[in-house]
């Protein structure tokens, strides 16, 4: 089965530093997403991205967050100035053109720890 | 706004037995999708089963089946012949594309432990 790949698997950073989380979605997919999960809590939607622009974002996705698809294969999430409360598992996901009738593929996640 | 409620924070079952995990949701949409995801200790999100709201027939995938009650807005997951590998967090999730939304809304999860 095809896979969504996320790197790194773990990222440790100091508060106030910038981090970039990287994802390689499945090659023929067109919809891309970031979700996050604070330890012990539910998975929360951050942002969706289609046709090279943000299609939807949550209240969590404030000015400190940005997404980019720089080269047609990678999909990145940048946090400009990390806060302690940004510590979470960040999941990238992708799917094809057929809407929710198609499976949404999740990556294995990047565990971000902000110290 | 759509909400998903899982009222059982933790459940346990004996190996080979059957267990049912509950999920209710709230929406004003008529066309939507419901999902159960499994999250083992590795924390990867694995799709277990999916149900389209317009389909009356309950979805099944091998040992996993759902009881979808649209009027009651209920979507429970039944795991038959439970196996040790079924031990995981299980999340119920909802998507309503007709509302123009792209997001999955998750419940808080049920931690399932299968005992030998």
Summarize the structure.
The complex is a heterodimer of chains A (115) and B (116). Chain A has no helices and eleven strands.
Structural description of this entry:
The complex is a heterodimer of chains A (115) and B (116). By secondary structure, chain A is an all-beta fold. Chain A has a single domain (5-96), classed as Sandwich (Immunoglobulin-like), CATH 2.60.40.10. Chain A contains no helices and eleven strands. In chain A, strands 2, 4, 5, 6, 9, 10 and 11 form a seven-stranded mixed β-sheet that branches. A four-stranded antiparallel β-sheet of chain A has the order 1-3-8-7, with no helix packed on it. Chain A is globular, with a radius of gyration of 13 Å. The mean pLDDT of chain A is 93. Chain B has 116 residues and is mainly β. Chain B has a single domain (3-115), classed as Sandwich (Immunoglobulin-like). Chain B is built from no helices and twelve strands. Chain B has strands spanning 3-5, 10-14, 19-21, 24-26, 33-39, 46-52, 60-61, 64-69, 74-79, 88-95, 105-106, 110-115. Classes of the chains: A mainly beta (115), B mainly beta (116). The interface between A and B is medium-sized, with 26 and 22 residues.
């Amino acid at each position: 089965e095809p896979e969504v790949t996320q790197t790194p698997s773990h990222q440790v950073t100091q508060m106030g530093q910038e981090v970039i989380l990287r994802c390689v979605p499945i090659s023929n997919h067109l919809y891309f997403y970031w979700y996050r999960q604070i330890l012990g809590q539910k998975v929360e939607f951050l942002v969706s991205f289609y046709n090279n622009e943000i299609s939807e974002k949550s209240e969590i996705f404030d000015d400190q967050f940005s997404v980019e698809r720089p080269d047609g294969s990678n999909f990145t999430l940048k946090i400009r100035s990390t806060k302690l409360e940004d510590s979470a598992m960040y999941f990238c996901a992708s799917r094809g053109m057929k809407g929710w009738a198609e499976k949404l593929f999740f990556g294995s996640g990047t565990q971000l720890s902000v110290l | 706004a759509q909400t998903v409620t899982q009222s059982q924070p933790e459940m346990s079952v004996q190996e080979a037995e059957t267990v049912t995990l509950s999920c209710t949701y709230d929406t004003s949409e008529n066309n939507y999708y419901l999902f159960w995801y499994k999250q083992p200790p590795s924390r990867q999100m694995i799709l277990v089963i999916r149900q389209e709201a317009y389909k009356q027939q309950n979805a099944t995938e091998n040992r996993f089946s759902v009881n979808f009650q649209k009027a009651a807005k209920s979507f429970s997951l039944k795991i038959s012949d439970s196996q040790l590998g079924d031990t995981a967090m299980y999340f119920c999730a909802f998507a309503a594309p007709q509302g123009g939304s792209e997001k999955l809304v998750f419940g808080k999860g049920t931690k399932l432990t299968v005992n030998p």
